[in-house]
Specification:
This protein is an alpha+beta fold. It has three helices and eight strands. Strands 1, 2, 3, 4, 5, 6, 7 and 8 form an eight-stranded antiparallel sheet that branches.
Length: about 180
């Protein structure tokens, strides 16, 4: 049987919790009603949004120049010796007129003294060169299961799949290095 002191010690915390709940309930304000506008139906781009021939050439040239500058800044001539072996890098670029984005695809191969053939680690990255946004990344062997394989919001399971997903952004590649 509970003594009067035990009852009091049980009732006080219960009363406190009940009081806090009541204050929280009364204090809450009604949530405002928000009208979310409905997006208009997708339409084809007007012809005015397409680049003229000279604008397209200027965008391609700017994309090429920025890609070369970024590669030289980060990789100089494309080969770096490290304690773990030698890393060789190459890049491609493409101005995607539909997205109006200059894509820069960097491929880095690490040749390690103890490994040979398909076991050579590979890393590929697809960037928007102007915004610095990473669109895709592959880390893994030339064949086999990769550690990382993703382009945009899509995951992949091989280098071949990664290349197919990246092609959608690169359309036709302009191989530079």
């Amino acid at each position: 049987m509970l003594t009067p002191e035990d009852r009091t010690s049980l009732i006080r915390p219960l009363a406190l919790v009940l009081l806090i709940a009541m204050i929280a309930f009364w204090d809450r304000s009604p949530s405002p009603k928000v009208d979310i506008p409905v997006a208009p139906a997708a339409q084809d781009e007007p012809a005015a949004l397409h680049l003229s021939g000279s604008e397209r050439m200027a965008a391609d040239e700017q994309c090429s120049r920025k890609s070369r500058e970024e590669f030289r800044r980060a990789w100089n001539e494309g080969t770096v010796s490290t304690a773990n072996g030698q890393e060789t890098a190459a890049f491609t670029h493409h101005y995607n007129e539909k997205l109006r984005v200059c894509f820069y695809e960097l491929a880095v191969v690490r040749r390690m003294p103890t490994q040979a053939g398909d076991a050579t680690p590979l890393r590929k990255m697809l960037f928007d060169i102007n915004e610095g946004e990473l669109y895709g990344e592959y880390q893994g062997p030339n064949s086999g299961i990769p550690k990382v394989c993703q382009v945009a919001s899509l995951y992949c399971a091989s280098l071949n799949e990664w290349d197919r997903l990246a092609e959608q952004f690169m359309e036709t590649k302009a191989v530079t290095q």
